[in-house]
Structures
1.
Amino acid sequence: MTAAEKPPEPARCWVCDSPRLARWRDATTVGPLTSADFRITDAHYGRTAAIERCADCGFRQCAELADALRYYETLDDPGYEESAGERARQMADLLALLRRFKPAGRLLDIGAGSGILLAEAQRLGYAAEGVEPSHWLAERAAAKGLTVHWGTLPHAGLRPPYDAALLIDVIEHVADPLGLLAQARDVLAPDGVGLVVTPDIDSFAARRLGARWWHCRVAHIGYFNRSTLLRALDRAGLTPLHVMRPRWHFSTAYLAQRLPVYVPFLRRWNPLARLPEVIVPLNFFDSLGVVFCKK
């Protein structure tokens, strides 16, 4: 048998490296995928690749999308910029938490998007920069005068160490979460702190809604719970300092558009659509946030 004829290596768990993976949920994607399927603002809830569950640690992953990075390099997302106001408030909440552990210094945002968090961090006095795989989003950040390096870690344009490193809704998008966490560890100063935020597959909302949960999307290829997230941090050489449930901020227009998916009567009569445009803080307790440091 030639090398070309050899069967592919069986997938292993991205968190504990176990080979004991079993189908947990079948694929619900239709047709070939494009970068548009990976937009941050994608609203096709419940549409995912096939999800495998690790029998040893419980982590769930979409092994067939291990090459997802190629979609992000060509991704654009105009809707992301349109929701910058509510996202800025969300980032302000997370930075308020970070300031309890690291009130100043050099900050790196890993998966910086168009720089919404960076702008808030600079307003608070941090020397902030980021790295982002989407060329389109990195260009939007540059147009705002923000320093966002196009690409992924490790990146030649970065000058570590950093006092803070943030991974906000990032590790669920990558096929090597341990590697990404280890890279975040490597750019931190000895007394630096990090913050990781990701959806919680064992939250009440996730269990109640099943495949209809809003975090079940093509772009999410790794699904953590508290146990697997803490295990990933430990294996990456990191120590948790604080675990929390972050809240999010939504405009009334956004809620009027998205809630009818879950509340059928709103499709016929939607009072939210008649409300003035305001931003509402909500916490569905279905995300996890962990402040961490080096071991």
2.
Amino acid sequence: MCQPLTNAFPSIEERLKLASRISLFLDFDGTLSWLAPDPDEARLEERTRETLLRIVQHNRIAATVISGRAIEDLYTRIRLEGLTYAGNHGLEIFGPLFCFVEPSAVTHRESLGRLAEDLAQELASIRGILVEFKGYTASIHYRRASEADVPRVEQVVRSAVEPARAWCRVKPGNKVFDIVPRTSWHKGMAVQLINRSLAADGGILSLYFGDDCTDEDAFRLLPDAITVKVGDAVSTSARYQLPDPDAVSGFLEWLAGTM
């Protein structure tokens, strides 16, 4: 049963003290930043950025922002050296120890770009739809669309992807349909790769915060970690829950002060 994270602060503090290394993972939209009707409007509050800077400077903590956004987009919104940036749901990773792109994502980049262009044209008549090509994935955002139009949007997206089903698939998210390469790679696999790079005597304690269904892959692969679902936690594999990005920012301040 998922429980409020604030109820577990004493036990978490004890685990933090015992860990030789701490691996912190944070989703961006809906976790570090409030969700915005237009993805381009999402911003990291300066208070949260300053807290992240304090955390990054701590030598026992390795921090990663892991998101469906492209790495360049993530870096533009955060601009902190010392962070690891994992974009496109972990398909691309860049940081102090990394320069990684999942091979199958590279193979189909051009084909995915053409597919995104075709979808943008086909969906242009539906108000409130944004088609975003992110290099290794594509997203069809419908947060600003009428609820009555969503079934039609989904039908168009799935029909467009059907001829390319051998190499890509549709993955529904929070007011978005993501088109991703057909690969076993996901956020959980990216987390495991990053953790393997952190040699630490006595083990690594992972903390993972995320709000979307794409974060569930990481929750499931981190059974011994401090996993936190941000927002509604009716159905999740996370152990703990926080209500919103303000609560995440508050926890990060607590973490920075505790360490």
